[in-house]
Amino acid sequence: MKKNFSTLATALLISFSVSVSAADVIKIDTPALDNTVQKVYSVYCPFCYKYEKAVTPNLIKNLPAGATFQAICLENKGELGVESCEVLAAAATISHKTYKQAKLAMYAAVHDQKLKNVKGSTAVKGELAAIGLKAAGMSQADFKAALTTPEAQEKLAYDRTIALTIAKIKGIPAIVVGGNKMIDTSTITSLANLDETIKNNL
User: Fold this and answer.
1) Which of 110, 52, 54, 48 shows the shortest CA–CA distance to 74?
2) Close Cβ partners of 144 (under 8 Å, ≥ 6 residues apart)
3) Which one-letter DSSP state was computed for residue 187?
4) CA dihedral sign of residues 128, 42, 143, 108
5) Which branch of life, at top level (predicted)?
6) pTM flag (> 0.70)
7) 173-190 burial, b for 16+ CB within 10 Å, e for fewer?
8) Strand runs (DSSP E) across 109-149, as ranges?
9) What is the β-pairing status of strands 181-183 and 174-177?
10) What is the pLDDT of residue 8?
């Protein structure tokens, strides 16, 4: 995946004056979803973090009219992957801002600060969740209340049924269009190329 992101990052530095062609798309055995673009990620994935900052905002901004974006949390990566996904599912029930604050704080703890208590053999249960909740301004009571809502539980259940299936194909970050068409990120050459591929497959 490192090579994939490097290819895209390099492409961002060149002019978009050349004609834009679509990236390759892989048909996958998952349910179809009309007008939906999904991204599978984990806060433990360094390339997901890079996408979060450099790619995803542009992707969302340029979605065709009527298209919906879904972020799918992969809990099977990282020692505290389950709690990170639980925090994000709970935070999302409050507001997108709350969700974003929690997610960026957990990304930073793992990749920028490289805190020993959130990864590897020295990870301590509850530490990554605490970081996300603090950044989002959520108390433990807020978290527990939000986590038990039908919205959060449905989100966690859905992500568990689909995230690992998609991630096993070519790793993460994974971008899926229409539920069953995964973009081969190694063939993305620019942000415009990604936009065109999404448009062609919705």
Assistant:
1) 48
2) none
3) G
4) positive
5) Bacteria
6) yes
7) bbbbbbbbbbbbbebbbb
8) none
9) antiparallel
10) 56
Q: Encoding tokens for residue 26?
A: 């892989």
CATH 3.40.30.10 fits 2-12+24-201, yes or no: yes
The structure tokens listed for 150 are 């039908």
Q: For residue 153, count other CB atoms closer than 10 A to its CB.
A: 14
Domain map of the chain by residue range? 2-12+24-201
- Tokens 């048909």 found at: 27
Report pLDDT digits (tens) over 32-80. Answer: 999 999 999 999 999 999 999 999 999 999 999 999 999 999 999 999 9
Residues with pLDDT less than 70, the chain: 1-21
Helix pair 81-92, 140-147: axis angle to 10 deg: 80
CB proximity list for 111: less than 8 A, separation 6 or greater: 46, 49
